[in-house]
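Expect chain and fold; thus:
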Amino acid sequence: MKYVWAIIGGLLAAAGVLLFRGDPGSVSRARPPAATPPQAVETRPATLDEPALETASEAGIPSDAIEAKTWILTDGDTLPELARRRYGDERLWRRIVDANPKLGSGDMKLGDEILLPDLDDIPEPIIDAAALVADLDSGREERGDEESPVASTRSRIEVPEGAPTLDLGLDREIPEATVTPGSLVQDGDSIIADAEFRIRGSGTEEDPYLVSWELLASAADGYRPSLGERSMVQRVAALDGQWVQIDGYVAFPLGGADTSELLVMLNQWDGCCIGIPPTPYDAIEVSLVEAVPPGQRHSISFGSLKGRLLVSPYLVENWLVGLYLMDDATVRLES
């Protein structure tokens, strides 16, 4: 699974370029939608035959949008924020890495110029598909389970008669996926999902959803793009954009500098010899609110993470490389 870890490591190194310092120069700072550049919006009264034109804010274009196809890295820039301002979706930050390979290798610094081309102009990363398939097959053999990334025996939960049903997640737009309805019912202070998972909490920062790795891994029930399956179950889509809390093994990027990026996983793994390598279903790429200095972290730790979860599939030639992101996160590491 070294190839898969190399991919994950590249993503982490890319996200490690989250804080930059430099002179923005004369770069224009307005953003087009993903497909076409924005047109000038004129606001004037409507006539009887013509409706009023939308203002920029009504059209969904942020006031801090980025229009230019290049950008000077400055203090406080983050890849998710640049993706939001340029492409309208912070989950597209990986495409910025695809357009700027040096971000993945950590060779860029504050004041450097990066490319922010139109999405259609960003080339797909070149990956040896045969090697990737071999690595994935090897991982399945280690788990002893070809159907699910996490071996499990799900028990049924009795659903109270007359419990109110919820439509959470049905309105979420998950890239490269179609949300399929399931069964979410309210049971007191928790949600019963498909009579298999109990989700406690409210999904807020003060009262996050307490989620299990089994729930996150259940996305594989309908979402396996390499097999042509792109259905995202409602119980997973309902977590998109919500505050969640989860425990797991924490891996920091290599290097001596402070880092605000980490990978949290179901299984312990040091990237070489210990434990089971992660899959996109049982790992989350995390962006922390505060950077962790070298003296407060180890290569592998166990901890509790709280942050805003994003269901963000990242596909390379229909192979799922990443699935979950967590922003605005805090971590409590066990000693």
Summary: The first strand starts at residue 70 and ends at 72. Residues 129-143 form the longest helix (15 residues).
